[in-house]
Amino acid sequence: MEIEYSRQLRKIAGYIDTLVKGFDVNDPRSHALIVSSLNQYGDTLHHWANHTAGRIMSDIALRDEKTWLIYAKDLSYGVREQIRNSDISAVYQQLLAEQVRLIKSLPLEAAQRIHDLSTRALIDGGRAKEVVSLIMATGHVSLGRANTIARTEISRAASVFIQSRAEHLGSDGYIWRTSNDVDVRTSHKDMNAKYVAWNKPPTLDRMTGHAGCLPNCRCYPEPVIPLD
Asked: How many domains does the chain have?
């Protein structure tokens, strides 16, 4: 899912790059036109973003349900029915709205970046060539942002769906699990195997969130489900 989402978001970054390089960025008069074009592009993305993100979120929700049912195969029929009947519609809509906002933010952030760079060029004319180079790199910056969104949001959505179904089954918390490799951040490694209450997300590196919900986090929550 991360690969697919990243592929879709990279299309936007590619168009941003094409749009920016379609103007003569050496001419300061073109900067306002680029900003306007990027803002207009962001406004046209809503339907596409809703469709693309909706398909991704639906697939994550379905995979989450299948995973729950696999682990619940030895539990009672009632528990399995609870899993199947968990109402995740509110969570789904919340995640979808956030994904649409993030997708549309790609050209909008690019527009703001160029506006800021153009303003800098007016204030400090001696750095005009450097500013032009930075404007030309806007597509590359958007590409990096697209990959970060895909990596973070797929993990976050999976964790949020897990939490929603876990709480439906009466879970008060989970065990923090890492991906257990050399890339795990020290702060996250220190959380491994610790119990975390759903209503008390930890703060790590000055960011607050559950396992899998922090930027570039590959950890995941292992729900603690009451047996009675």
From this structure: 2
List beta partners, residue 223: 174
DSSP string, 51-114: HHHHHHHHHHHHHHHHHHHHHTTTS-HHHHHHHHT---HHHHHHHHHHHHHHHHHHHHHHHHHH
Which segments within the chain are labelled E, that is strand? 173-177, 195-197, 203-204, 207-208, 220-224
The pLDDT-based confidence of 129 (bands split at 50, 70, 90) is confident
Burial of 86 (0-12, 13-18, 19+ CB in 10 A): buried
Residues 125 and 51 in one domain: yes
Domain boundary among 127, 154, 169: 169
Residue among 164, 173, 64, 48 nearest 72 (CA): 64
Write out the residue range of the structural domain in which residue 217 sits: 171-228
Q: Could you read off the pLDDT of 48-62 as tens digits, one per residue?
A: 999 999 999 999 999
What's the pTM? Answer: 0.87
pLDDT (tens digit per residue) in 133-147 = 999 999 999 999 999
Q: Can you say how many angstroms the Cα of residue 185 is from the centroid of all Cα atoms in its chain?
A: 19
* Structure-block tokens of residue 141: 């910056």
d(CA 89, CA 87): 6
* Distance separating alpha carbons of residues 28 and 38, to the nearest angstrom: 16
Question: Does residue 160 share a domain with residue 145?
Answer: yes
For residues 92 and 127, state if they share a domain. Answer: yes
